[in-house]
Amino acid sequence: MITIDDFKFHERDPADRTWTETLFIIFSNAEHAISGNLYCLARPNMGVIHNSIEIHKGFSFHPWQIDHNDTQMHLPCPEDYSDFTLENGLSFKAHSASDLEWHYKSLDGNCEVDLDFKAACPLIDTHDPEDNPLAGQSKVKGYEGWNNGHMEGKGHITGRLLVHGKEYEIDCVDGINKSWGPRNDWGSRGATWVHIDLGDELSAFLVLDISFENKEIVYGPFRYGYLAKSGQRWAIINATMRAERLDMLVTRAVVELEDANGEKHTVYGKTIAGAPWYNFNPSSAAFQTLMHWQCGNLSGHSHIADFVGLGYMSRGMADQYSTD
Questions:
Q1: pLDDT, tens digit (0-9, with 9 covering 90-100), for 13-60
Q2: What is the pLDDT of residues 63-88, one digit of tens each?
Q3: How far apart are CA 25 and CA 114, in angstroms?
Q4: CA dist., res. 309 & res. 193, Å (int)
């Protein structure tokens, strides 16, 4: 079970330089096709933290098209990961495991973010069988760092975004996560994190591996996931996803899933905003898309985020040099 203590730094071997703890929230304003995220990667034994703030509107296929992109490495690591302020203007506070708060004011004055997160259901410890019946198969192949301590959360995110002098309301359902453990990233594999929002009736979260076949992304196998409704959470036991894309950004997606009650759902997604996120980690890239989801008469907005190691992506996508 996840508690507020999991937002602090966990017990660790102080000699392990690879010990890493991450913190992430993704959010949107669907009316204006705005998508954003706040991300921290701390290495407390080395005394440093890497931070990335990324905001984009509509489609951005290149880094220079992104509306706000602030990434700073090797900032001093805070003592308390559950309540901190960084030198780049980002602050975070966990009031409880289900009540979180972020604030950010860029040093150049071009961007401000104020967010409150209220969990829609209890946060999931992905390796605890009490939280995740598929804990034994939930490891993402090739990414051992992601397979140590890991929590996922879905909730109601409210607040404001100010970017380049214009203010937007934030009122969405989307996700957070936090990880902890030894992590020596080198970009060896990939996975997709999928948040589905269908209004007050239903929301879902799921993770699938990513592989490449003939320079196309293939999703699967399914690793774990859950559905949330009326404060309750229950497991997804099987899921598939297929997608169309332009360059590496998803444009349409179909998700088929079966929950622990035996109910099956087919959800269709159309992208309204997307961007490549190249600087959350030097070893990897993410391709973040804000989707309009529909399932029968239900609809809503939330994100797909394809995370791919740069080395793995080049092996799957790059033209090979000829030796002739």
A1: 999 999 999 999 999 999 999 999 999 999 999 999 999 999 999 999
A2: 899 999 999 999 999 999 999 999 99
A3: 12
A4: 14
Supply the mean pLDDT for the chain: 93
Mean pLDDT across 272-285:
91
pLDDT at 138 over 70: no
pLDDT bucket at 231, cuts 50 / 70 / 90: confident
Among residues 216, 189, 217, 220, the alpha carbon closest in space to that of 206 is found at 220
DSSP-derived 3-state class of residue 314: helix
Question: Dihedral sign, CA of 29, 92, 305, 301?
Answer: negative
Closest CA to 304 of 259, 233, 239: 239
Whether residue 190 contacts residue 173, with contact meaning beta carbons closer than 8 Å, is answered with: no
Neighbouring residues of 192: CB distance < 8 A, sequence distance ≥ 6: 207, 208, 210, 219, 241, 304, 305, 306, 307
Q: What are phi and psi of 71, to 5 degrees?
A: -125, 125
Do the strands 190-197 and 166-182 form a parallel or antiparallel pair, or are they unpaired? unpaired
- Answer for the pair 274, 178: CB distance below 8 angstroms, yes or no: no
Can you tell me which residue has the tokens 């994100």?
Answer: 303
Helices (H), the chain: 310-317
Q: Assign 2 to helix, strand or coil.
A: coil
* Tokens 């009650």 belong to residue: 261
Residue type, 157: I
Contact 305, 288 (CB under 8 A): yes
Spatial distance between the Cα atoms of 238 and 240, rounded to a whole number of angstroms: 7
Six-digit token string for 168: 């937007």
